[in-house]
């Protein structure tokens, strides 16, 4: 499936939908979809990253992320369209599902 860079109004609509379904922590910063997840401990954070990494590899869409102990900071952007695409919101939704199952 070919993806395209979303227009600002599309990003705002998708962000509102994601935050309604999730925890309202997703935001747009520097043309990236961002969130910091906080887990009980490092083991949960690492489990989340492992599940997310396996899914991301299958989708050929890899997050920019940073982990310190129980926190995982995520930045999503679609490099081949130089901005945010539906792929970023799809991955964000999946990450929310992984985090809620821990």
TrEMBL record:
One of its GO terms (molecular function) is 4-alpha-hydroxytetrahydrobiopterin dehydratase activity. Belongs to the pterin-4-alpha-carbinolamine dehydratase family. Keywords: Lyase. The keyword ATP-binding does not apply. It catalyses: (4aS,6R)-4a-hydroxy-L-erythro-5,6,7,8-tetrahydrobiopterin = (6R)-L-erythro-6,7-dihydrobiopterin + H2O. It comes from Marinomonas hwangdonensis. Gene3D superfamilies: Transcriptional coactivator/pterin dehydratase (3.30.1360.20). This is Putative pterin-4-alpha-carbinolamine dehydratase. It is an enzyme of class 4 (lyase). GO terms for biological process: tetrahydrobiopterin biosynthetic process.
